[in-house]
C-alpha cells in the first residue's frame, strides 16, 4: 500500500504525520499539504511498518490498536452495507416465499370450498362442524401481531402525548449526534479510541442504542416493510448506527457517513407543528424550505469532507487534502451560488465527480429555494408580532373600520389633555396594513399606540393582542358605507368572535341601524350591566335632531358636551368668543363629598354652581331594593324631595376633570368661607363615616310617616319598576307651579298620584294612551293610506307649530330608522296637546318601508312629493313650522364625498330663498293662537316655558328654523351663503353648527372614548336624547320590532314623571326682570328655587353683542355660562324642567280662549289651590276631551 496521507487528514487543516523527534504518544501537526514528501522524509517511529512506511494511524500506547497502523474503514462501511442489503434480501425473500405460498394454496382453497359445499347439507341438518384448531391458532396469532403493530404505531405517531414526546426526543438526539459529528470532524477521519475513556463516543453510543430501538418500533409499525427499508430515515440509520457498534468492538473510530444525520433536519417543520409553534401556511413553508436547503447543504459538505481528507481508493489515498468540515461547507455554498472563488476546490476524483452532479441539483435548489425563502421572509407581516402587556398599565383593543380619519378622530378625543393622565395603551387590530399617512400617525403616538395586522375573527390574532387581559374592546363602524346592514352584520360577527374567545371582555361597538342593535341581545355573553354598550349612530343622530325640534340648538350643545375640545381664547367681543368658552365644557362624573349628605338636590346644585363653579345636572341613584332588576338609575334634575346619600355619583358640566374634584374635596368646615374655588383642595378632616348614613333614609324617596301614608299603596310596587331615566316619585309637588316649600302632605292628595282615582279611569278611556312601558304616547296601528295627505288637503289643513321632515329616499335606499326621530317627539312626559304634529314630505315608496315602525305614533301625516318642490312645502305651511328637518337616505350611494350631501344642501337653500305672504302668516298665527304657550302672562299657570319664542309671522325662508343632516363635514360651508367660514375649519367651529342648523354624524365619534372612560355618560346622553329608551324597552322592541300598547296603571303613569329639555324666554314671563341686563347666576338660582328648573345654557342671537340693532335672526349656543354672565332680553335659556302633572287639566279648556290678564290671574289662582274633590278635577278634564275632539275634526278631518 502506498502513502496513506489521506488517512491522516483531519480537522484543523493540516496533515498528520509521525516525526522522528516525537515520542510514541505524541503527534506532530504540519500545515503542509504535501503529505507524500513529508512522509518519505520521516524516520521510523514506535509504530512503523516496513512495507507501508507512509501509512500512519494516530495511536496511544494505552489503546490495544493494530501495531501496523492498518486502516479499517472498510469494516465500518461493510457493517452498514451488510445491514442494508441483508435486510433488503430478507424482505424480498419473504415476499417471494409469501407470494409462492399464496399461489400454491390457491388451488387448495378451491378444493376446500367444494368440500364446504358438499358438507352444507349436514350443517343444514343441525350437525355442527368442529372448528379447526390450526385456524384458531392462526386467528389468535394474527390478533397478537395486530395488537403489537397498533401499539408500535401509537408509540411513533404524534397523535398522542407519548408519541409526540418520542418523536421530539428522537429529533433532539439526532441533532445531538450531528453536533458530536461536528466535534469529531476536527479529529482524523480514522483514529484509535478507547470506548471506556472517550466521553463523546459513549454519548454517541447511547444515542444510537436509542435510535436502534426506535428503528425497531418503526419497523413493526410499518405496513409496507420494503418501502420502509428504502426511506430516507432508514438509510440514515443503516449508515450511522452499525458503525458505532463496530467502533466499540475495534476500539477505533471512523468519521465515515455520520454526516447523514443532517438529513434529520428535514423533519424540523413537522416537529415545530407537533409543538404547536408553526400554525400558518407561510411559516410552515418557510421552515420546510430552510430545513431542506440546510440539510442538503450540510450533508453534501460532509461527503466532500470525507473524500477530500481520505483520498481516492484507486490512488492509494495519496491525493487527499486536509480540509476542515466548515471549509467544505464554504466550498459547497460558493459552488451552489456559481461564484466559485477557487480558493478551495476538490482535488480527489470522487470529490470532483460528486461536485459535477451536485452542482446540477444544488444550483437548481439554490436558484429556486433562496428567492422563495427571501420572498417569504420579506412578505412577513410587518405588524405580525404579539402585544407584550406592560405591568401596571391597561390596554384596549380597537378594531373594525380602521382608517386615517376614524383613527385620528378617535385618538384626538381619547388622548385629549383635558382628561386625567390616560395610562391606557391603545392596540389597533386590522387585517390591512396601514398606509403611509396612518403609519405616520401611529409613529407620532408610538408611546401609547400599537398596530397589529390581523382579524378579530381569528382566535390566533385575538391571542396576539392579549384580548383576554384587555380592559375593553372598541369596534368602529364605517359610517359612510353603502350598505349599513352589511356593516352592522360584520360588526356583530366581530362581537360574536370576541365574546366566543373571552366572554368577560367589555365591548363597546358602533352600530349604524337601530333595528340591528337588537341582534346583540341574542349573544348570550352580551351584558350591558357589565359595561357592554352599543352606540347606535342612527338612534343618537336622529335623537339629537329630534331634541332640536323641541329646543333648537340643543344638538350642538349636547354634541359639544361629550366631545373633548381645547379652550380657544378670543379677545375680541364676537359671538365666537362666548361660543368657544362654552365649547370647552365637557361632561364629567365625580362622587359627592360627605358635606352634601342629607341636602336636597336643588340645594347641592345651587351650592356647586355658586361656590364650586360647577354645574351638576344629574346623580346616580342606587336602589336599596336588592330584588330590583336594575339597582342603578340615573336621575336627571330629580327635584327638591331627593336627599343626597353618602357615596352619590354626580354628573357635572365643567371645563376639565380637575375642577370636578372640588365636589369630592369640599368640606363645609374648611371651605365654607372660601370664595376662590381653586383653593378648594383636599383637607385633613375625617370623612363622614358610613354609619352616619343611618340619619337619612336608605331610599332618597322615603319620608317620615304621615297620616296620609296609608293612601300610597303603590309605593312598594314602584321600586320594582327600574328606569335609567328618573325615579317614580310618589311625593311629587305638582311640577314647577308649586313652591318647594309646599307641604308634601298636601301634594299627596294629588288625584293623579292616587291609584284607583277616576282620573286614571278617564285616561284609560281617553285618547291619551301610552305604550306598555309608559314612556311614549301610543295609538292603535294605522294604515298608511289614512295618514296620507294630498297637496290640496294639506293646504286646507291648518298646520302650525308642527315639525316638517323632508326626507330624500326611494325604493332602493337604505332605511335610516325614522322611528328614532319620532320617539323623542312622542315621549310621555309631554301631554297629548303638547305633541307637535309631524308631517313627512318625501317619496311614498320609501315611507311605506318605514311605516311599519311609525304606525303606532299619533299625530303623524305624510305628504307624498319631493322636498325640492316649493308647492309641497307651501302646502304643509313650512313658514309656520316649529322646525324643518332635512334628511337623506341616499348619501352613501355616491362615491364623491363632495356630492354626498347635494340633496340636503339644495333643499336647505331652496327653503331659505322662499318668500311668504305676511297677511296669510298673521291670519294663520292668530287663528291658531300662535303665541307659544307659556310665553305670555295669559298662560293659566304662569308657566315660563314650553317652546321657542317665534316671530308673529315669517315672510322669508331665511327665518324658518331648519336643521340639516350632513355626511361630509366640509359641506357645511355651502349651507350659509353669508358666513365667512374657511373650508378647512373644523365642523364645531363653523357658524351653521354653532347655530344648531347643521348636524353631522361625525360628532358622535367622540362617544366611543367617552363611553369607555365613563359608561354612565352614554346612559345620560341616551336619556336626554331618546326621550326614554331603556334597556327594557330595547329588549321589547328586539322581541316584536314594534311598540306595544298598554293600559295606564300607576306604574306606567309614574314613568311620565321625568324631566325634559325646554327653552325659557326672557322677553316675557316671571323672569323678564332678569332679561334686561340681569345676571345668569341670579336666573339660575331663581329658576332652581322657584320651579325646580335647572338652567344649563343660552341660545343667543348672533349679533346681540352689537350696540346697533341687527336684522339677523341667527342664534348660537353658549354652554354653561358663568354666574356673572350678563343676559339680554332676546335670550332663550336651555333648561331641564319638571313634568307638569296639572298642565293637561286646564290646557284644553284654555286653548281657544281669549288671553286677558284678568282671566289669567283667576286661572292662575285656581291652579295654585288644591282641589278638594275629584269632581272639580273632572270638569276641566271633560272640557279638554270635548275641545280636543272638536279640534281634531276641524283640523285633521
Describe what is shown at a glance.
This protein is an alpha/beta fold and 1197 residues long.
Kindly describe this structure.
With 1197 residues, the protein is an alpha/beta fold. Among the domains are: 1-71, no CATH class; 74-104 and 140-274, no CATH class; 278-380, Orthogonal Bundle (Helix Hairpins); 394-531, NAD(P)-binding Rossmann-like Domain (Rossmann fold), CATH 3.40.50.720; 770-1004; 1145-1195, no CATH class. The protein is built from 42 helices and 26 strands. A six-stranded parallel beta sheet has the order 7-6-5-8-9-10. Helix 4 (133-156) packs across helix 6, helix 5 (161-184) runs antiparallel to helix 6 and helix 11 (281-310) packs across helix 12 (325-336). The N and C termini lie far apart (129 Å).
Low-pLDDT sequence parts: 1-64, 121-131, 688-765, 921-951, 1146-1197
Tell me the distance between the termini. 129 Å
Count every beta strand, where a strand is a DSSP E run of 2 or more residues.
26
Helix-residue proportion: 40-55%
Number of helices: 42
Q: Give the CA-based shape.
A: elongated
Give the overall average pLDDT.
76
Return Rg in Å: 46 Å
Q: Which percent band covers the strand fraction?
A: 5-15%
Class from helix and strand fractions: alpha/beta
Q: Biggest sheet, open or closed, and with what strands and sense?
A: 6 strands, parallel
Spatially, the strands of the biggest sheet line up as 7-6-5-8-9-10
